[in-house]
Amino acid sequence: MMLKQTLWTRNFSLITLSTVLGAAGGVAGSFAMSFLVFDETGSTLASALLLAIQVLPNVFIPLVFAPIMDRLPRKPFLVGGDLVNGVLYLALGIYLWVLPFSYLEYLCFSLVLACLSSFDQLAYSSFYPRLIPEGFEEKGYTVSSMIYPVLNVVMMPVAALLLDWVGVAAILMGQGALSLLAGFIESGIRVKEQKRLDEAGKLFSFRTWWKDLTEAARFLQKDDGLRSIYLYMMATNGLGNGYSSILVAFFRSTPGFTVGMYSLFTAFEFAGRSLGGVLHYHKPVPPKHRFSFAFLVYQLYEAMDMLLLWLPYPLMLVSRAVCGFLGLNSAVLREAAVQKYIPETYRARLNAFFSVLLSVGISLLGLVVGAMGEVLDYRICITLSAALCSLVLWCTIWRHRKSVKEIYNRNTGED
Length: 415
Prior knowledge:
By secondary structure, the chain is mostly helical. The chain has helices at residues 10-41, 44-55, 57-69, 75-98, 103-127, 137-165, 168-186, 206-222, 224-253, 259-282, 290-307, 313-341, 347-375, 378-398, 401-408. It starts with 9 loop residues before the first helix and ends in a 7-residue tail after the last helix. It has two domains: 10-191, Growth Hormone, Chain: A (Up-down Bundle), CATH 1.20.1250; 214-408, Growth Hormone, Chain: A (Up-down Bundle). The chain is built from 15 helices and no strands.
């Protein structure tokens, strides 16, 4: 009798459990530290500088380590990253337990943690596709895409209570313990991986590293479909991230709106994402309709952003819920399609390029949107930004639709 295939194999169950533990600790730790920095310094600039430093490693860490990850087994990178992360957070918690807070020292420590986080994320994104059973890619990425939004909602109030009850140091030690536990769980994953040697029979050299990096760059340059997806994601994530400061300013300064009304945005978007995740898990988009669905979602997303601040408040909330629903579905579809399309031996390097493009887009385009907000009406600022995003969509995804469709509708037999 043949066994029924399932997504929830031993490997997938272990990686999901470890991800839940790591995410729970990460949400609580980030929440606690954001309040600690402001409480100790009283400066929003100090908090902003901390965030800027944490983004910086995403520009260079992936490019340094990706060629190595594509030649060595990736499981040790993932397990080792979580174990080191756990030790560092335990050390930080103990430090804050016995010594007074120092902003400069914490700034340096945050840079180390951000480097490790960037390294760990690259290892995770490159190893995760190997743990999803064949044919269950969309369901697998639906599960992973729901973990952080759900835990964000669950752990935020828990972290707020723990902050008052036990303090920042204890929360960080708890985060360290959860990271260590996640690493031990990941060590139980069973996957056969092999080392790849270069032409000279060596595992690693600077020449090999540079050759591997340029080889992946040429692959991306020649692949119109993958490059178009990367460039559009860079634009929509970069400009979309810049909206946050504009929305805060709008709700803070516009008569009839309040900060409490702004906070409901998150709740409605989470509700939309949750519903989208449940539906997508039980009824994935048919392969032959994936490109059409994704492109329609991208157009609707940009159109709703263009109209967002011109709508009555109840319709703003509906818009956020719809965006959450559609965004979850299109993100799962894209991630599953792209990771299945990328050759196994290129995965870490191409994921690294994607990570760098996102970081650059978030940093530079976020500044552009912020600068526009200084001279333009907030409504016009977001409308123009979304219109620019829509233009990029047509110049990338639609212009190279044949190549993009081959990625989204892969192995369907559709022209």
